[in-house]
Structures are given as C-alpha cells and as structure tokens.
Write a structure and sequence with these properties.
The structure is a single chain. It contains 13 helices and 14 strands. The protein has 364 residues and is an alpha/beta fold. Strands 2-1-3-12-11-4-5-10-8-9 form a 10-stranded mixed beta sheet, sandwiched between helices. Strands 6-7 form a two-stranded antiparallel sheet. Strand 1, helix 1 and strand 2 form a beta-alpha-beta unit.
C-alpha cells in the first residue's frame, strides 16, 4: 500500500530523532511492501527564522493533504523571549487546533529491562502499563477569554478553563474505547471539589459510562492522582483528563519509564477503533532538548515508538506496528542503551546507532 506522510522535524533534537523514526518506517515499508511518500514542512523556531510564522501556511496545507504527521519537537532558548510576537510552541498549538487533534494518547509502559533506569523502586514500577488520554484542543490552553491587559491598578492576565459537554463527551469516549480493548478500567481525573468545569466533566463521564457497562469507571482528583502515580502506578489502566492536568501528569508519569526519551504520543482527530484509520500527529513527548541537539546522543526510541502508533492508528498496519515494538524490546534486551537510560555493563550507543539497530531488526 501507499501512504502520504507529512514530516515536520522542527527544532533541537527534533531533526535527529525524526531521521531515525523515518529510517525504521522505511525498513518496515520495505519488509512488508508499503511505500511512504514523505512531505517535509517547517514548524516551530526554524519556521519562524525562515518565514516569520511558527506554522507557515504551506506546512498546514502539507499536513492536510496527508494521512498522518510525524513531528520532532519545537522550541529552544533562541526563541524564548516572553515578549516575542510569536513563539515556536504556537506552531504546535495551532496544528493541534486546526487539525482537530483533540485526543492525545500517551502510553506509559515500563520495559522490564529498564527497571534500574528509574528513580523509583523496582517493586513500585513492576507491571506499570497504562495510557493517558489528554484532552488537547480545549480547556485551560485554548478557552477564551485569554489575554493580558493594563488597568489603573496594574497589569492583569487571564486564562479560562471552559468545556462544552460535547468536548468532554468525545474525549471521555476515547477513554472508554481504549479501556474496552484493555483491562476495562477507566480513571477520569478532575478537580470536582473546586472547579465547575470539573463537575460538568464528572457528570458527562458518568453519562457516557452507561454505554460501556463492562468498563469500571472511577473518578480521581488531580492532586490525589499526582500522588498515586508515584505511590502505586500499577493501579492504573486508562486515564482521561483535561488538557493542562494531562500536560503536567504525563511529564510526571514519564519518569516511571526511566526517561522521557522512551515515551511516544499520538494526537488523534477521532475516536480510535479497531479497523478505522484516523488522521493523527505523532511525536515523542520529550521536546526539543536544545542542549543535546546536534550531538548524536538523543534517544530516538520515543519517536520510533510514535511511528509504531502511527502505523496502528492512522494506517491500519497493526502487525507492522507490533514488529517495531518488538524490535525496540529486543535491542534493549541485547543491552544497547542511549545515554539517558545507560546502566552498568550495558553498551552505550548514539542516536544513529540506536536507529540502525532497531531498523536492522525490523528489516531482518
Ligand atoms: C507537550 C508540550 C507542549 C504542551 C508545549 C511544547 C506547548 O509540553 O506536548 O506536552 O504544553 O502541550
Ligand atoms: Mn508537556
């Protein structure tokens, strides 16, 4: 089969890890007889430097003509001035909004061979395998009013946490669908003891639950959830939550896997169901890591696992996705590590080395 993919390498380590992701994708394509037409575009700081916009019109058009987008990372100190008219992150946020990517899937899985790479005790992280569903186009990130202004008594600023029942319903449904295909346990995370938007969230979650009688739904306050992620992470199967809560909790949860360099993500424009291909954007969650850029040290595994998610959710290529996931596991089993997950007695490799090893396994 033939597929069209938009590739947006972006800033920092983005181009390096994207290159390895594509390497592994091509290896899988060659093995199974698929061809992937790649359409490159600018986003983030590099786009600001070249065009003045964080998301040039051209890039948006490229994405809209493709079935999926692979993104590296955006941002860096060069574009960090809070007074600047445009920021690299605006490119990412506009992409999410304009492409309708409301469902952000962030799986957190501890590879048994990496138990020594995390800061937590092995007995705490043993068996951790859950997935966060973060709402991605509403809530505190996007709702209006959102502005800064001057008053006679000084400056003021506001952001809003507003949700419609439709926005809540569709994201909670993603949670139930994912839970149906897994251990049938959904935790909806909110702050219903304080926030009105969370009270609506909880009501809507309970209403949607009646369509999924075989999934057990529980509600957890976001502060308690932050604690439980460290205290007993194996408790969770699927979690669903508001945009900002999800942003914070997924960084926290990434530490269970030993390194942010291990965690992929998918941002989808629909409810994932077996046998349905959904438009999506795929990216590692680690960001641009500017200090590591250009050194051939960044861990490409998060991007490579994002490619696997793309094959599964946007291209319907499930066995190809599994092959990539198995290849990652095998290379780790054999003792190869990038610096961020390096351990005594293991063999340290760079970004390209890790990509070559995984692509080699996929192609063999
Ligand atoms: C993420 C990032 C982004 C976010 C930034 C880069 C805008 O932190 O994907 O989690 O806050 O959503
Ligand atoms: Mn984040």
């Amino acid at each position: 089969m033939q597929f069209n993919l938009a590739v947006l390498p972006g800033d920092g380590v983005g181009p390096e890890v994207t290159y390895e992701g594509i390497k592994v994708l091509q290896a899988a394509g060659k093995k199974f007889g698929h061809s992937f037409d790649l359409h490159y575009g600018l986003v983030g700081g590099v786009a600001i430097d070249e065009t003045g916009a964080a998301l040039p019109e051209d890039t948006r058009k490229i994405c809209q003509r493709c079935q999926a987008v692979l993104l590296g990372a955006v941002g860096g100190p060069k574009w960090d001035d809070p007074k600047a008219r445009v920021h690299p992150e605006d490119g990412l946020l506009t992409l999410r909004k304009r492409l309708g990517l409301f469902a952000n899937l962030r799986p957190v899985k501890v590879f048994p061979v990496l138990v020594n790479s995390t800061n937590l005790k092995p007995k705490v992280i043993d068996g951790v395998d859950f997935i966060f569903i973060r709402e991605l186009t509403g809530g505190l990130y996007f709702a209006r009013p959102k502005r800064q202004w001057r008053t006679s008594r000084g400056r003021r600023a506001t952001d809003s946490m507003t949700y419609s029942e439709q926005e809540i319903e569709r994201i909670v449904r993603v949670g139930f669908e994912m839970a149906s295909g897994r251990r049938k346990k959904l935790t909806s995370v909110d702050k219903a003891n304080v926030l009105e938007s969370s009270r609506l969230w909880r009501q809507v979650a309970n209403e949607v639950a009646t369509d999924y009688p075989d999934v057990a739904l529980d509600h957890m306050l976001v502060d308690a959830c932050a604690m439980r992620i460290i205290q007993n992470p194996a408790y969770f199967d699927v979690l669903v939550t508001e945009n900002m809560f999800g942003d914070i909790l997924t960084d926290e949860a990434s530490m269970l896997a030993g390194s942010m360099g291990m965690l992929p993500s998918a941002s989808l424009a629909g409810v994932p169901r077996q046998g349905v291909n959904i438009f999506g954007m795929y990216e590692p969650i680690h960001g641009s890591a500017p200090r590591r850029a250009g050194l051939n040290i960044a861990n490409p595994i998060a991007t490579i696992l994002s490619v696997a998610m793309m094959l599964r959710h946007s291209f319907g290529l499930v066995k190809e996705a599994q092959l990539i996931e198995i290849a990652v596991d095998e290379v780790l089993q054999q003792g190869y590590r990038t610096y961020d997950i390096m351990d005594e007695g293991k063999t340290e490799v760079g970004t390209r080395g890790m990509g070559d090893l995984i692509a080699g396994k996929v192609g063999s």
